[in-house]
Amino acid sequence: MSRKSFALNTEPHEAAIGDIVLKFIPEVYGDEFLDAYIQLRDAQKSVGGGGENADPAELRQAMASLRAFLADLMTEESRVLFTRVDVVKGGEVLETFQSWDEAETYAEGVVGGASVVQHLRLPARVLTELMEWVAELYGGGTSNRPTGRSSGSPQPRRTPGTR
User: Fold this and answer.
1) pTM of the model
2) Comparing C-alpha atoms, which of 126, 121, 18, 9 is closest to residue 75?
């Protein structure tokens, strides 16, 4: 009888962005990850090729989908920080929400107007790099696999002839 042991990650994965560390859950179920990843890709495809003809509302929705995808893979503490949305007026935070829609609704009722901003603002390139990193972590990318031959792999055959 043969037996194979598999290790499970138990410590959160960490992404350091400046002084901030976002923690991601140690393991995800493959089908749940793939479903979320497919939804993200579909949202990105709706934007089309992007560029100067891209609809700003579609671009905003694609970025919101990317943030939601990443947040779903984070530990609770990091998720709360990452999804925090502030309603700001005159440089002062009036109220904090976990939903952009709730923050916009609140801001509409502020006399004199208010702005809605992500508390943790990150460049699009950083969000994209985070997405690629988690795709490798959870999607079985090659970066988390050993690069050498396993101990069970057969030795390469020598080719006949002289060296």
Assistant:
1) 0.74
2) 9
